[in-house]
Amino acid sequence: MRSQRGAVSAWLLSSLLILATILTVGAFFVLKWRPEVASEHGRGVDRMITYIIFAAGFIFVVGHLVLSTFLVKFGGKGTAAYKPMTHKTEMLFTIGPVVFMVAVSELGVLAIGGPVWNQVYTHKPDDLVVDITAKQYEWISRYPGKDGKFGRKRPDLFDDQENPLGLDRKDPDAKDDIVVRGAVYLPVGKGAWFNIQSWDVLHSFNVPVLRAKQDAVPGLTTHTRIVPTAVGRYEISCAEICGPGHYRMRGFVNVKSEADFAKWLKSQVGWFE
Amino acid sequence: MAIAQAVETGKAGHQAHGRDHGHPAGFIRKYIFSTDHKVIGVQYLLMAMLMSVVGLGLSLWFRVQLAWPGKAAMTPEQYVAIVTMHGTIMIFFVVSLALSSGLGNFSIPLQVGARDMAYPFLNMLSFWIIVPASAIMILSFFVEGGAAAGGWTAYPPLSALSGFGKVPRGSPGSGMGQTLWLLAMALFIVSFTMGGLNYVATILNLRARGMSLMRMPLTVWTYFVAALLGLLSFPALTAAAIMLLLDRHLGTSFFLPSGLVVSGQQAANVGGTPLLFQHLFWFLGHPEVYVLVLPAIGIAFDVIAAFSRRPPHGYKTSVWALLIIAFLGMIVWGHHMFTSGMNPFLGKYFSIATLLITAPFAVLGVNLLASLWRARIRFTTSMLFALGLISAVGTGGIGGLFLATATADLHFHDTYFVVGHFHLMIGVVTMTGTFAGIYYWFPKMFGRHMNETLGKLHFWGTFIGAFALFVIQHFQGFGGMTRRYFEYSADYVQPALALNPAVTWFAFLAVGAQIPFFFNFFWSMFKGKKAEANPWEATTLEWTTATPVPHGNWERLPVVSGKPYGYAEGANGDAHRMQNAEA
Question: Does residue A179 contact residue A164 with C-beta atoms inside 8 Å?
Answer without folding.
Answer: yes
